[in-house]
Amino acid sequence: MPTRSRASVRKPSTEYLPATDDHPELEIVRSPRRTKTVSGSFTPEGRVRLLVPVQTTDDDIWEYLEHLLPRIIRQKETQDARKRTFVSNDYLVQRAQNLIAQYLPEVELPQEIRWVTNQSTRWGSATPATSRIRLSHLLQGAPEYVIDYVLHHELCHFVYLNHSAAFRGLEARYPRTAEARAFLEGLSFGQQKNASAR
Ligand SMILES: [Zn+2]
Fold this sequence. Notes:
The chain has helices at about 5-10, 60-85, 90-105, 145-155, 165-170, 175-190; strands at about 15, 25-30, 40, 50-55, 110-115, 120-125, 130-135, 195. The protein is α/β, with parallel strands linked by helices. It folds into 2 domains: about 5-80, no CATH class; about 85-195, Metalloproteases ("zincins"), catalytic domain (Zincin-like, 2-Layer Sandwich). The chain is elongated and about 70 Å long. The N and C termini lie far apart (about 75 Å). Zinc ion binds near residues 153, 157, 163, 197 and 198.
């Protein structure tokens, strides 16, 4: 039996298959580290990457794919739908409704709450006179509790325009205020901006 050096056996090999009507572009990685398990997922480029043990045959791979692909595609569709929801204005309105119900019963739901892309020095802004709240799109992708905090902060401005002690008292009803502020400070630092919730 021919012997192969350990080094060459250990190296994973990658094979790319172009997309067809039946499947998206595939990236088959035969990994010597894997013994039994097979896993598949979408890469950021939209390929399906399949990780299989090194000795897997092509027939086996097609059999795996038949089972795995529908699941991976369903998973991605769910994730995409979540992402779309997350960046919608309706999502912000729903979050604000929750916050009002939980912490700010004295505040009426503003007439307009939406994401804006032209606001990069402030995470959020409130205009009680016209009943509007705007959130910077730079917050998209931040944890939900951080978005909730910025919304809560802006909703508090519908009671107090300034950042007085009374305002801070109202703001502190949101339980994760300190944590969210710390997160935003880190985010400002990372984005080299001096953004804050105003
Ligand atoms: Zn403020």
